[in-house]
Amino acid sequence: MTRAEEFEDLRPLLFSIAYRMLGSVSEAEDAVQETWLHDAASPTQATSAKAFLSAVVTRISIDVLRSARVRREEYVGQWFPEPLLTDPYEDPERSAELADSVSMAALLLLERLSPLERAVFVLRDVFGFGFPEIASAVGRSEAACRQLVVRARRHMDAGRPRFEAGHRERDELAGRFLDAFKDGDVDGVRELLAADVQLVGDSGGKAPQWGTGIFGAENVARVLAALVTPFIQLGGVVEPHEVNGQPGAIFRDRDGKVINTWALDILEGRIQTIRAVLNPDKLGHVGPVADAWAVIREANRARRPTD
């Protein structure tokens, strides 16, 4: 197998490591490309391409994450990860860890970790790397890496929500919710929401926003019912789709352009959180992006009574 073929075989793994490190599809793709350039420029071929390339993409991601921290601290409104529609890396032996670690909630918890803690946690608990490989990747001793992963686990466990284990039940509830939403059925929507449900969005100041969020089942149900009728009348489409390993949806305008995405957190048979990514800068990999402000203006005109 040539070096290029070996790299292509490992590309899904490298992207998946970088995405969990960075929470950004575009930055993860850039990190993988930089890893390829680094590998191609190396005069010798590593004994283990997986260990070598994983270490390179991890170091690149740590550097990107450190520089991104300032930008995220100055970000307008809440920061959410870029929505991931499909995780390219599959490993049946680690499917539970992979699915859990890519959820919006888990990625937001990872944001609380230091770059080194995040790297060690991702490599060890998500992808199952050994401590010798991890130590080489992050440039720390094995003992230091063990301490880092213990701290990271403590932070993650303290904030980790316990989502439904049964995918079929979760997906069925999400389907009922989206059907009720599309029908403008306030009662049907409300009965599937947790009492303290949150509807929160990430617009980055570049798209319509719900302030700091909408809270409580009654408020969320009424806001959603008010939004959906003019949206559907204008030819908008609510496309159910898994987002970050969770039930969700892609919202498109009449021309098929992306307006936003939703990811649904489901616990104990109720929807706990609806996270909407509206920032157009985070949606380009999903498809051509709509002008959300224009959609809102048209929807508002459609809501006005005519003489």
UniProtKB/TrEMBL annotation:
Keyword Isomerase on entry: no
Coiled-coil residue windows: none
Similarity-based family: Belongs to the sigma-70 factor family. ECF subfamily.
Key words of the record: Sigma factor, Transcription, Transcription regulation
Keyword Cell inner membrane assigned: no
Residue intervals of the RNA polymerase sigma factor 70 region 4 type domain: 105-156
GO BP annotations, alphabetical order: DNA-templated transcription initiation
Pfam families cross-referenced by the UniProt entry: Sigma70_r2, Sigma70_r4_2
One Gene Ontology molecular-function label: sigma factor activity
Alphabetized Gene3D superfamilies for the sequence: 1.10.1740.10, 3.10.450.50, Winged helix-like DNA-binding domain superfamily/Winged helix DNA-binding domain (1.10.10.10)
Name of the protein in question: RNA polymerase sigma-70 factor, ECF subfamily
Subunit structure: Interacts transiently with the RNA polymerase catalytic core formed by RpoA, RpoB, RpoC and RpoZ (2 alpha, 1 beta, 1 beta' and 1 omega subunit) to form the RNA polymerase holoenzyme that can initiate transcription.
UniProt superkingdom: Bacteria
Ranges for domain RNA polymerase sigma-70 region: 7-69
Taxon lineage: Bacteria, Bacillati, Actinomycetota, Actinomycetes, Geodermatophilales
